[in-house]
Amino acid sequence: MPVRGSRERIKAFGEVSRRLGLSNRVYRGIHAIPVEKIVGSVGRAADLLPGFRLKRPDTRYYRIRRAMERGEILPPIIVYKVGDEYYVLDGNHRVAVAKELGREFIDAEVIEFFPSPKIESKALRKKRAEFERITGLKGIDATEPRHYDAFLNYIQDHARQMSASLGREVPIQEAALNWFLCVYTPVVQKIVEKNLEEAFPGKGLADIFAYIMDYKWFQSQKVGYDIGFERALEGFMKEIVGIEQPERPALERRTLGQKVGGLLEEVLPWLKRE
Questions:
Q1: Residues 6+ apart with CB under 8 A from 212
Q2: How many angstroms separate the CA atoms of 258 and 143, rounded?
Q3: Does domain 11-115 have CATH number 3.90.1530.10?
Q4: What are the structural domain ranges in the chain?
Q5: Which part of the chain is the ParB-like N-terminal domain (predicted)?
Q6: Whole-angstrom Cα distance, residue 108 to residue 175?
Q7: How confident is the model over 83-109, as pLDDT tens digits?
C-alpha cells in the first residue's frame, strides 16, 4: 500500500551537515536502500512537501510514475548517507514516486558522510562567518582559519581583474560568485577526479584547494611567472603527495558531475537544477 500522511518536513542536507560538522566522506557503491529511510534532499528540500511529495508535479513526475508502474528499471538515484538516513542528491522525482507507490527499496549510489573528528575552534568559526558575510558564499568548509584569509585575497584580486576587464567597479559578492564558478569549482572537480581527498584524511575539499594554490604561488614566485593550474597540480601531486595520476573507479567518475552539482547546491542554495 502507498505510504501517505507523513507530517515530517523534508530535511535539508546543508543544515544537517553544518549542525553535525560533516566533512569526511566515503563512496559506498550501489545498494538497495529502504525508501522509508530517505528523509531529505541536497539543495531541493524547499521544493518538497512532507511525505516527499513534489510541490508542483510535472510531466517528468508522471512519466517516471508510469515507468515504475510498468516495472521498468530506472537508473539508481544518488544519495548522501548520514547515520541511517539518506538525502537525495539526484533522483527526487524517483523517490517521490517510490514513496507514493509504497515501494520498500530503491537502488542508489551511496556516498556516506561522517563528522570531522576535530572540534572547531572559535577562531575557525569566526573566520568562516566573516568570509560568508563578506562574500555571500556558504558551505566552503575549511579546517584551518588561515585558508579563509587566502580565499578572500583570491576573491579581491579576482574583483580587481573583473573591474579592469569590464570597465566598472565589480561588487565583492558578484566577484565571489564568478570566482566560485570559474576558479574554485573547476579546481575542486580536479581534486575529486584525482582522488586527492584520500591523501589528506580529516581535510575538506576547501583545504586541499588552498594547499594547491599555496604550491602554485610558491612555484610561480620561484620561476618568475604564473605556472598555471595544470602544472601546479602535477607538481603538487608528485612533490607533495608523492603520487602520479590516481583516478576514481570508472563508476564513481561517471557520477562526478552529480557530486560537483551537489557542491554547487550547498554553496549557492539559490541555484536550481532541473
A1: 187, 191, 229, 232, 233, 236
A2: 24
A3: yes
A4: 11-115, 122-267
A5: 67-112
A6: 37
A7: 889 999 988 999 999 999 999 999 999
